[in-house]
């Protein structure tokens, strides 16, 4: 049983043997089905120049999904501040919030959204990597422009994305709700949340600490099927362990033939111990454990599996077996 709201993160994996346009078309059906299932929000992640993840701007996907759904909240998870002028973020998401009142979120993160340095420099038009102070100033400027420059009525709900204690410290200092990337840095989760809650400063955006935790979740009818579906992402993780970021997103059949080393298997298993894979009973138990350990007010599920039908089935099984507000 889960007694916190459930949301979803869309990373738009481009599957081996398909085209980016196929992934893009799937996002519409995905948003509509999650809307019908009653998920609270759906966020889109910003990525660039990856063979496995489509370079689909979160603001564009948010606008498209908002026009084809009726209730689910939509937004960025996140849009990456170093790649955008603060006033443009404020104008874009302020406009979306005016067109779709009380349904738009502006989740802001720091990473470049790419492992390729040339792409990162191109995104910043040749500028050097953003410093801590510059990132803080960009987030603060975006919030200021939302209020001072946009003035379109209902504002988007701002969130700060974090995967470390430094990100949690900034969220606390600015008085923003925080979305923590447990699906990326699970070892950092508890210390970061403790810091956030201990140092939180109330703001017009948020009166008290508010935490969303993102968990990698693969749910299927059987444990074996869930393991099969999780295989492609395990191949991606194994590549990242070796510093490789140019691996396409394989099919489950291709993943089953991947020659994992003992070190890769250990790394994948250690990561998976913090996530939620298996049957509905197993997944709901793991999600409840994460919610209890973190004190999260909301859980966001990311399900990077091959094929839209299998991905949607995972979200359906979780929602059907969960009891949520």
Automatic annotation (TrEMBL):
Enzyme class, UniProt record, top EC level: oxidoreductase
InterPro entries listed in its UniProt record: Bact_Lucif_Oxidored, CmoO-like, Luciferase-like_dom, Luciferase-like_sf
Ranges where the Luciferase-like domain occurs: 18-295
Pfam family, one: Bac_luciferase
Keywords: Oxidoreductase
Keyword Oxidoreductase: yes
Family, similarity comment: To bacterial alkanal monooxygenase alpha and beta chains.
Top-rank taxon: Bacteria
Protein name from the UniProt record: MsnO8 family LLM class oxidoreductase
Enzyme Commission number(s) from the entry: 1.-.-.-
Source organism of this protein record: Streptomyces asiaticus subsp. ignotus
GO molecular function: oxidoreductase activity
Keyword Oxidoreductase appears in the UniProt entry: yes
């Amino acid at each position: 049983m889960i007694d916190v709201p459930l949301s979803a993160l869309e990373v738009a994996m481009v599957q081996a043997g398909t085209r980016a346009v196929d992934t893009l078309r799937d996002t519409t059906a995905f948003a509509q089905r999650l809307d019908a299932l009653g998920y609270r929000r759906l966020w889109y992640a910003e990525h660039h120049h990856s063979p496995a993840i489509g370079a689909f701007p979160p603001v564009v996907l948010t606008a498209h999904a908002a026009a084809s759904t009726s209730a689910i909240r939509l937004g960025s998870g996140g849009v990456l501040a170093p790649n955008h002028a603060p006033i443009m973020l404020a104008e874009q998401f302020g406009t979306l919030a005016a067109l779709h009142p009380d349904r738009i979120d502006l989740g802001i993160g720091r990473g470049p959204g790419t492992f390729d340095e040339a792409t990162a420099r191109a995104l910043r038009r040749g500028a050097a990597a953003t410093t801590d102070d510059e990132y803080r100033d960009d987030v603060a400027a975006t919030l200021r422009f939302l209020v001072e420059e946009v003035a379109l009525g209902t504002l988007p709900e701002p969130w700060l994305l974090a995967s470390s204690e430094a990100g949690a410290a900034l969220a606390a200092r600015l008085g923003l709700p925080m979305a923590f990337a447990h699906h990326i840095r699970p070892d950092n989760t508890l210390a970061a949340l403790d810091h956030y809650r201990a140092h939180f400063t109330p703001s017009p955006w948020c009166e008290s600490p508010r935490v969303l935790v993102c968990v990698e979740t693969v749910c299927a009818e059987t444990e074996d099927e869930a393991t099969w579906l999780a295989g492609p992402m395990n191949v991606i993780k194994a590549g990242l362990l070796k510093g490789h970021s140019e691996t396409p997103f394989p099919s489950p059949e291709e993943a089953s033939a991947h020659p994992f080393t003992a070190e890769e298997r250990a790394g994948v298993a250690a990561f998976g111990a913090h996530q939620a894979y298996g049957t509905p009973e197993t997944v709901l138990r793991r999600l409840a454990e994460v919610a209890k350990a973190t004190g999260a007010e909301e859980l966001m599920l990311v399900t990077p599996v091959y094929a839209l039908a299998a991905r949607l089935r995972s979200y359906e099984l979780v929602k059907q077996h969960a009891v949520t507000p």
